[in-house]
From TrEMBL:
Organism: Streptomyces bobili
Domain MOSC residues, every copy: 112-268
Name of the protein described by the UniProt record: MOSC domain-containing protein
Pfam families found in the cross-reference section: MOSC, MOSC_N
PANTHER family tied to this protein: MITOCHONDRIAL AMIDOXIME REDUCING COMPONENT 1, MOLYBDOPTERIN COFACTOR SULFURASE MOSC
Length: 274
């Protein structure tokens, strides 16, 4: 059986404070007051990708200006609107212009090329030949987010910013870590590391793995510029694990439903008597 644990904060203390999805992998996110969580994660999360001429993913450390590409709408049909500084809006319908196969991390996925106008637009923003692709679901139902939900707690960020202050470094905003869901109210930092289950209303999430951090965390999400060495320098002092530097955790949705900012978050521990 599962039961809720009280050590990380009661349901009244712990709540959802941010919900964000990223329609284009590596680009800015859209923050919502409420969202539906499905077995694929947040609806429309990482539904599109930007690739180079060889079909390899562009990522923020190599192309930090990805952070300046801001999705402003996406719907169930796949229609997407993108904006970027000093450029007109780009609108794509998600339909096939030319079929491509691109190798996203871990396995090949089918992808729908959005055509020459979209390619010219993203190339203009990034300054390097690029194409915009809509990802088709793999047989297991996975899109470019690997059906994961990225969770980070405010307590974890507060601890990091405390360590940064000791070094005389400026505090960092939550968007450096690009979470889907932010929890506030846990008194213990990194509670997300050990929460076997999270219960949010009718929705249940299961912990899958800790989030290994890379150089993308050193990109300023507001300016689209590299701004290292933080936070990796400081995180390396106290958050180094076997696979690398960790901060935040990935969860899968085991019971889908609607989540709203302000919803209580309960930590459920396997094996306890209810």
């Amino acid at each position: 059986m599962t039961a809720t644990a009280g050590t990380a904060g009661t349901a009244e203390q712990s709540k959802v404070t941010e919900l964000t999805y990223y329609p284009v992998k590596g680009c800015a996110g859209i923050t919502l007051p409420a969202a539906r969580l499905t077995p694929d994660g947040l609806t429309h999360d990482r539904a599109y990708v930007i690739v180079d001429e060889a079909g390899e993913l562009r990522w923020q450390w190599g192309d930090p200006r990805l952070a300046l590409i801001t999705p402003h709408s996406v719907d169930d049909s796949g229609e997407l609107t993108l904006r970027a500084p000093d450029r007109g809006d780009l609108r794509v319908d998600g339909k096939a212009q030319a079929d491509r196969i691109t190798d996203l991390p871990g396995r090949p996925y089918g992808a729908i090329d959005q055509g020459e106008e979209a390619a010219a637009w993203v190339t203009g923003v990034l300054g390097r030949p690029s194409r915009l692709l809509r990802v088709r679901k793999a047989p297991g139902g996975t899109t470019a987010n690997h059906s994961r939900l990225h969770v980070v707690s405010r307590a974890s960020l507060d601890r990091l910013n405390g360590h940064l202050a000791e070094r005389g470094a400026v505090p960092l905003p939550m968007n450096r870590f690009r979470p889907n869901l932010v929890v506030d109210g846990w008194t213990t930092p990194h509670t997300e590391d050990t929460a076997a289950r999270l219960l949010i209303g009718d929705t249940e999430l299961a912990l899958t793995e800790l989030t290994v951090r890379c150089a993308i965390t050193m990109v300023d999400q507001e300016t689209g510029r590299r701004a290292g060495p933080e936070p990796l320098r400081t995180l390396a002092d106290y958050r180094r694990a076997e696979d690398g530097i960790v901060f935040g955790a990935y969860f899968t949705v085991v019971r889908e439903g609607k989540v709203t900012v302000g919803d209580a978050v309960e930590v459920a521990v396997e094996g306890m008597d209810a």
